[in-house]
Amino acid sequence: MARLLFIALLNILPWALAQEANYTVRAGDTLMGIAWQFDMTVAELKQLNALSSDLIRVGQRLRLSTEQADEAVLQPYTVSSQDSLTGLAERYQIEVALIKELNPGLGDTLTEGMKLRLPSKPGRTITMVAGDSLLSLALQNGLSPEELTRVNGLNDLGAASPGLVLFIPERTATDNTAVLTALSSSAQPRERLLSQQRSLMNNVVEQLSRYEPPGPEYLWPLTVKGRISSPYGRRNLSVAGNTFHAGLDIAVPSGMPILATRGGVVSRAAWGGTYGYVVYVDHPDGSQTRYAHMSRILVEPGQFVSQGENLGLVGNTGASTGPHLHFELRFNGRAVDPIAYLPQ
User: Which of 22, 26, 153, 309 is most deeply packed, by most CB within 10 A?
Assistant: First the structure.
């Protein structure tokens, strides 16, 4: 049991250290409170983030350290006339086979101007299949969902679907030793070091406690019942030439909180055309929920959210005739009637 716990800590600590180097502002946070939590001064926090005032916003990323993690990241690369597969493999210290795996369809000959994906350090690849989600793959491979998406340069995570090739960075014994050394030694005063270690371990405990295994229950996506103004299915109203309504419209006043019906990882949080401001959440069983026409988004791509967590506020953006929430439930990309899964 002790060995299993030690291995689990080695897998989770690099994630926690990465979380420790950055902080995402939550509702109710202040610069003074964040500085106190991480044993810093407000002046240090403002200098690290080039802040001219004490104002911060929900979802804003703040740096907590001048040190940046040495992480493997896929990099876009444009082939030149002098490039060869063996030359690129030597330059990046990786196998030719890995380059081919990361660039499906690549042959033995490179063409000038060709676009490739190349990693900054060794690793391996996995290919998403039906039923996979970024959350489940991250947990299976000892990564956080945020790290997996960042390493693979996935800004719009809605593109994560069966057939997508993902890069898994190699974690060596040296990496784990460096993590433990960083925890056990420092030139800082002992009190400051102990405070940082306590904060780090609290972060680990919090991340572990937020993991939710797949479950059958869904929450209602709003704090009130509201009125179903348009059910799932065919309707007379045409949106961009489409008369099939893939979700459930729930009419409520603007500004009402929108809740995650299940825990998962945010795969999209941005403007979505006819959706207006929209959030996608990918769940461990491969399902996905979508929340559209928001007036304000309170989460960001790669963020893990718990069931019932506030994703944003009801609005009237995009192709909308009044304030409401458009809620979708999809299994392996296919929309189903949400009413069959939501509490009545």
Answer: 309
Helix or strand or coil: residue 250?
strand
pLDDT top residue among 137 and 192: 137
Domains assigned to the chain:
2-69+174-209 (3.10.350.10), 227-340 (2.70.70.10)
Backbone angles phi, psi at 314, to 5 degrees: -60, 140
pTM of the model: 0.46
Instruction: Give me the DSSP letters along 268-334.
Output: EEEE-GGG-EEEEEE-TTSEEEEEEEEEEE---TT-EE-TT-EEEEEB--SS-SSSEEEEEEEETTE
- Scanning the structure block, which residue is given the tokens 């060709």? 114
User: Rounded CA gap, 38 and 25, in Å?
Assistant: 13
The residue with tokens 């963020």 is: 303
Q: Which two tokens stand for residue 38?
A: 């991480």
Q: How far apart are CA 232 and CA 248, in angstroms?
A: 5
pLDDT band at 163 (very low <50, low <70, confident <90, very high): confident
* In the block, residue with structure tokens 């926690």: 16
Confidence of residue 10 (pLDDT cuts 50, 70, 90): very low
Note the pLDDT tens digit of each residue in 262-275. Answer: 988 999 999 988 89
DSSP state of 57: -
The alpha carbon torsion through 51, 56, 61, 67 (nearest 10 deg) reads 40
CB 327 within 8 A of CB 88: no
Mode of pairing for the β-strands spanning 324-331 and 248-251: antiparallel
